[in-house]
Amino acid sequence: MSHNHTKFISRIVIAGATLSMGLVLAPAGASASTGHIAVSSSSAKPAPGQPSFGDKGAHVVAVQKAILRNGFSLAGGANGVFNKSTQRALKSFQKVVGLKVTGVVDSATAKVLKISTASSTTVEATTTTVAPAPTTTIPAVVYPFTTATLPVRGAKGDAVIAIQKALTAAGFVVKGGIDGAFGSGTTSTITTFQTAKGLQATGTLDVATAVALALIAPVAAPVAAPVQNASVNVASTTTLLDPSSLPVRGNSGDNVRTVQKALIAAGIEIKGGADGVFGGATYIALQKFQTAKGLQVTGKLNTPTAAKLGVIAAPAVSIAVFPVQGVCSYSNTWHAPRGGGREHLGVDIIAKEGNLLYAVADGTITKLYTVGTDKLAGNGVRLTQADGTYFFYGHMSKLADGITIGTKVKAGQVIGYVGKTGDTNTPHLHIEVHPLGGDAIDPTPIVAAVDACSVTTPLAVPAA
What we know:
Domain M23ase beta-sheet core: 343-443
Strand order of the largest sheet: 1-2-10-6-5-4-8
GO molecular function, one term: metalloendopeptidase activity
InterPro entries: Cell_wall_metabolism_enzyme, Dup_hybrid_motif, M23ase_b-sheet_dom, Peptidoglycan-bd-like, PGBD-like_sf, PGBDSf
Shape: globular
Structural class: alpha+beta
Distance between the termini: 33 Å
CATH superfamily of the domain at 328-448: Glucose Permease (Domain IIA)
Oligomer: single chain
Domain Peptidoglycan binding-like: 57-113, 157-213, 252-309
């Protein structure tokens, strides 16, 4: 049976040092005000050395960075101004971790944020000059797990309690309570957390989920040479992003800064500049870039946008046309286990039975599959390009008229129809990519680069 794909993405990028376990983003509200604002009426007092509402400077930046490190969104980023946005983000942080909600950096809040406090703030008696704020000292990050020690369902003990506490700190109620048993309650809560954060909703503590809960160290993006002949100049960075873990709104860190620099290099203005915070300004800038480039306008850093910006490497194989008529959906389970010890070698694009299937490129039909000859694939074809690269289509309901071995086809030509033949009960297209006729490669980023699942109108491409 061919299976759905779930894109495995690691959504939270963490730069700097300590991340308080399990803290996740909360809405930051409106953009920062640039005018003077009256001091909060709260009776709470800032800890020694910590800023008050309306303050500006490095000590405010230290607090703002600590809030961002803990996964909370902050409109305007770490701009060094203790304004309404900073106060709202601070209140959200205090609420989530169970502190008194004051909007003030009191001693308890400073301790949980892991920013140092001083015994006093020195002020000269004969002058209004205030001494510089103390340097923020942040201890090294200590994570409870590694990728090799993540607990699985059925586990018990302190390790499971750590997971349940992280979920609780993130604002999710663990069904069954913090009992140290990884059963259905914890599984259900992890699924809820994953859904809320846009992760693969499996109920398992995978790497992406563990990073989002701050249970393991973030996975670094691969380092590569500068992009050659990119659509924009991104020479300011030598690090390409991982296509499977593109930053999303609410993230902060170097990966976000890489995207922002690419947008600026492309001539798109970002309010606040490359501050490393994926907030409203970056969202709007992405929409402007997508509009200018004729891409789907979402404000999200999807694969086509990232490729056009030059922040990810282009796929080794490219296609001219998305293979399925929308509405459709797909996600990534490349090399996911299958029955009989097999691994999944394609991407499954789910669509209504009978939807059109298009040739992804110019080529020749070099092989046919039928229900009678291939019980796994059902009805299908092999579309081969001149260099030997071929695309395997499986589970078709039927082939289009005139499609047989030796047929020359053009990109966008209808070659068949979505079905559920072979080993599946779900109508979908299973498509594989074999460069130069060799082993299959992950096709997900290749189809994502031309994603057209929202396009329902048939392509007007004549038969070859």
